[in-house]
């Protein structure tokens, strides 16, 4: 892959150079010239592809200029203006009207954010195809949920998948198997933006056809622009759809809830964010605040260092964003067409290989939750923890595969015999990849009575193992612990090198 080098005349690193109007003007001018060159490099592609790419580069340039302006102004939130949201800005799920009305399902479409790869769990391809329960993937379960909804209530809720250039081809191949199902699946791609060198602030790619390593999908805040640019938003509106339920593809708790849907339509809200109560495992999650009389999402990256511990406090900020969002489609169209959605930019630093060198790059990303302040009558609804069941690690995978849950029409339901919150599970690096996890835990242990599990080192689980209370298993380097078939471990610490356990 060819790439721009970083000559000394270019804008220096953020740490070494004070951003001011002059430097931002120079950086913006250089960026505009290079983006024009990138657009000119689209030769073989059809006219539609060229037009879409040109629009993406224009949108990226707008994002880049805002990034420079933010750096130059040093604009940050005034901590003294941050207040807890009012009772109108955050309401409790149990306070919503219990109206048995499923007619509004005809106005609903469901969107899953499907741009992520399973690389963090050692998988190749879209994360949505990882097997999570009884041989079924994230995508399989989503399809089953909506198909059951359509069949039960004789409705037509479509499923949209927002792919990235990393997942699009594989996803198109995978969804072929659902052709005979009672569900319409539509896909569209989010934008493809150029990574920029951290030192020169110039794009890594030199042409449209440069290696995929030079590009990145710009976070789920790109949803609004991409939904409009793809034409999918207009299609939904023509079908009479009004509300879009958005969630992460790996959140198994994000199912359609008619109570929230009806509440949204009755109140005329253009945006509803589902929140759930914080635990000590969620202290970094974004939360809703009231700021200058406006509801906003506060992320930990926006918090001044001296207030980070205060932000993490479960007492002051009691709940966090699940990224289950209900958004009015006409409002999206209005705001995108008027270019009114300006959300906080999240600089994501990465290291990539360019030729024989490793270089530092920056990805300018945005989050869909941050757009809440642009919508009318937007507010949060505090929901049960059962609606937030993400699978980010193999520790999460153990939880959702266990006897703690059972599967019902594609939805995971917690066993009513369970008392209290879900157990805290921490698996060490030997279990990081799905392949290693499956080899070390070929049979899921029973964890209905488990409170806490920590496992580190070379540990192998047998069949029919039961874990209760607090269980800690620590295997020393170079050794191995085997948990035999039928073991019952309750409130124990296991260390050393064992192949036989009393049980």
From TrEMBL:
It catalyses: alpha-D-glucose 1-phosphate + UTP + H(+) = UDP-alpha-D-glucose + diphosphate. One of its GO terms (biological process) is (1->6)-beta-D-glucan biosynthetic process. It holds the Pfam family UDPGP. One of its GO terms (molecular function) is UTP:glucose-1-phosphate uridylyltransferase activity. Its EC number is 2.7.7.9. It is an enzyme of class 2 (transferase). It comes from the Eukaryota. SUPFAM superfamilies: Nucleotide-diphospho-sugar transferases (SSF53448). UTP binds at residues 127, 190, 219, 250, 392. Keywords: Nucleotidyltransferase, Transferase. Plays a central role as a glucosyl donor in cellular metabolic pathways. This is UTP--glucose-1-phosphate uridylyltransferase. It comes from Komagataella pastoris (Yeast).
């Amino acid at each position: 892959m060819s790439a721009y080098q970083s000559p000394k005349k270019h804008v220096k690193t953020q740490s070494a150079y004070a951003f001011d109007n002059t430097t931002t003007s120079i950086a913006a001018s250089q960026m505009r010239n290079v983006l024009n060159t990138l657009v000119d490099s689209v030769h073989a592609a059809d006219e539609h592809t060229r037009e879409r790419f040109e629009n993406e580069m224009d949108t990226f340039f707008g994002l880049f200029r805002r990034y420079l302006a933010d750096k130059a102004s040093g604009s940050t939130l005034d901590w003294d203006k941050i207040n807890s949201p009012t009772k109108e800005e955050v309401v409790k799920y149990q306070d919503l009207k219990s109206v048995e009305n499923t007619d509004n399902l005809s106005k609903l479409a469901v969107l899953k954010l499907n741009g992520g790869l399973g690389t963090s769990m050692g998988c190749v391809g879209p994360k949505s195809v990882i097997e999570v329960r009884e041989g079924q993937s994230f995508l399989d379960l989503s399809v089953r949920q909506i198909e059951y909804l359509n069949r039960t209530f004789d409705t037509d809720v479509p499923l949209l998948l927002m792919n990235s250039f990393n997942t699009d081809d594989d996803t198109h191949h995978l969804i072929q198997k659902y052709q005979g199902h009672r569900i319409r699946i539509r896909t569209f791609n989010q934008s493809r933006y150029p990574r920029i060198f951290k030192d020169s602030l110039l794009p890594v790619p030199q042409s449209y056809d440069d290696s995929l390593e030079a590009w990145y999908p710009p976070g789920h805040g790109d949803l609004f622009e991409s939904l409009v640019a793809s034409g999918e938003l207009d299609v939904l509106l023509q079908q009479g759809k009004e509300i879009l339920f958005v969630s992460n593809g790996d959140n198994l708790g994000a199912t359609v809830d008619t109570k929230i849907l009806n509440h949204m339509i009755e109140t005329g809200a253009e945006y509803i964010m589902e929140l759930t109560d914080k635990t000590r495992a969620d202290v970094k999650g974004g939360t809703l605040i009231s700021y200058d009389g406006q509801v906003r999402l506060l992320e930990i990256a926006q918090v001044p260092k001296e207030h980070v511990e205060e932000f993490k406090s479960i007492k002051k900020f009691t709940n966090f964003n699940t990224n289950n969002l209900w958004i009015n489609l006409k409002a999206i169209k209005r705001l995108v067409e008027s270019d009114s959605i300006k959300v906080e930019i999240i600089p994501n630093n990465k290291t990539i290989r360019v030729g024989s060198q490793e270089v530092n790059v920056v990805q300018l990303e945005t989050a869909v939750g941050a757009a809440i302040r642009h919508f009318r009558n937007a507010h949060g609804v505090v929901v049960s923890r059962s609606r937030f069941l993400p699978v980010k690690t193999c520790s999460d995978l153990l939880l959702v595969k266990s006897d703690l849950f059972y599967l019902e029409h594609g939805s995971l339901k917690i066993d009513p015999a369970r008392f209290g919150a879900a157990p805290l599970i921490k698996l060490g690096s030997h279990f990081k990849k799905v392949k290693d996890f499956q080899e070390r835990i070929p049979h899921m242990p029973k964890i209905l009575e488990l409170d806490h599990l920590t496992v580190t080192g070379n540990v192998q689980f047998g069949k029919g193992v039961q874990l209760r209370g607090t269980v800690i298993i620590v295997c020393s380097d170079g050794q191995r612990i085997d948990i035999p078939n039928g073991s019952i471990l309750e409130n124990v610490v296991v260390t050393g090198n064992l192949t036989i356990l009393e049980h």
